[in-house]
Amino acid sequence: MPLVIVGIGILILLILMIVFKLNAFISLLITSFLVAILNQMGINEALESILKGIGDTLGSIILILTFGAMLGKLIEESGAALTITNKLIDIFGRKYIQYAIVITGFLVGLPMIYNASFLVLIPLIYTLSKASKFPLLYLGIPLSASLSVAHAYLPPHPAPIAVSAIYGADVNLTLFYGLIPCLPAIIIAGLVLSKFFSKLDINPPENLHVYKEIPKDKLPSLAMSLLTTLSPVILMLLGAVITFSVGELEEVWWTTIAKFISNPNIALFISVIIGLYTLGVRQGHAIPELMKNLEKSIAGIAMIILIIGSGGALKQVLFDSGVADYIKTITIDMKLNPILLSWVVAALLRLAIGSATVATITAAGIMLPIVAVCGVKPELMVLATGSGSLMFSHFNDVGFWMFKEYFNVSIKQTFQIWTTMECIIGIIGLISVLIIDFWF
User: Fold this and answer.
1) Longest dimension (CA), the chain
2) What is the DSSP string of 70-93?
3) Distance (Å) of CA 200 to CA 203, 253, 415
4) CA distance 13 to 8
5) What's the structural domain count of the chain?
6) pLDDT, tens digit, for every residue of 185-196?
7) Residue ranges making up the domain that contains 358
8) Can you give the pTM of this predicted structure?
9) I need a surface site. Which of 74, 143, 351, 365 has the fewest CB within 10 A?
10) N-terminal to C-terminal alpha carbon distance within the chain
11) Closest C-alpha among 422, 375, 429, 379 to residue 402
């Protein structure tokens, strides 16, 4: 049974990492190969699947990770993160600093994919933790929760936009319904959950962040700091606005250019170029010095890139071995409420193939014939599908490894925090949809 093999694969990975103390990258590769063999794939077929998974995963996010790390390094080294941190503390005070984090994460996460927005904001979390003396996870968990909420619930995030198109849902109405569960999800999965882990003595990885005090007269201005930090958000919002205003109309040169520069890869690249001037040259730093810092930023994420790639290998093996098709087969004949069924399908796909975006879109394809005849508002089906796609995050999910590596926590702690947080957001989304459907 494919789902049993998924469970065996998770157990093998845990044994390799916890008992034998193997590196996550090596453990994931071994597990991917063993899972492929258990699913009766040939050894050469398994190798091809693993290589495809690594290539597809890194091919889609390698530039985002690279440019995100570069931008983060510029924000950190220049003191821009410290400038923004000081302003946040001035505005919200220490008592309400978590509210500043969730508002920032929510606004930044709306137009940007999770990985990109996380990488843009993580330097602020590192600096804010050191400057304010708050525990890293006390700030990091609310940030991750707000980003995940935007990912699952709301247009103009790519996944809800794509599923709205598949279901024929009204995007504005989808946004309206999606806002309803946002507050309880962020409060419970972000603010409340953080209280259970804020006592953990966690520090940023040494190769990713070194906190240093910079005299105030040497700090970049707030305007330049915000412009550089938010430049990818501004560029990606431009693409969302174009999508809303132009829609399916024939493209002209200016819409083509706008969509090009709003692509996350290009938006982050342009932001790095902006940062080199606003936080580098403009602050009196020489180009060779800036290039050395950018090189250091890449060295710091090298192992993270390999781990994420090997997680993509496991995802591809599960996909190629027929786990996704098996889930389609067992769910199509289920006699469940359409809302619950779409949530279950997306949740099982997330368990099997890792990517929340892929799980959302795949589940939408499975559910499309049902949506057309079930009588449930398609906007609610978008929200239910997106909520289900957050469930059961584990080793084959890029977000799982990013949380673990950037917050420097153990595998056990990642399950306790990240996986729990994602499940809370997914369950709150489902409950909200059922309530909305009942009343409206």
Assistant:
1) 67
2) HHHHHHHHHTHHHHHHHHHHHHHT
3) 9, 52, 15
4) 9
5) 1
6) 999 999 999 999
7) 2-439
8) 0.72
9) 365
10) 40
11) 422
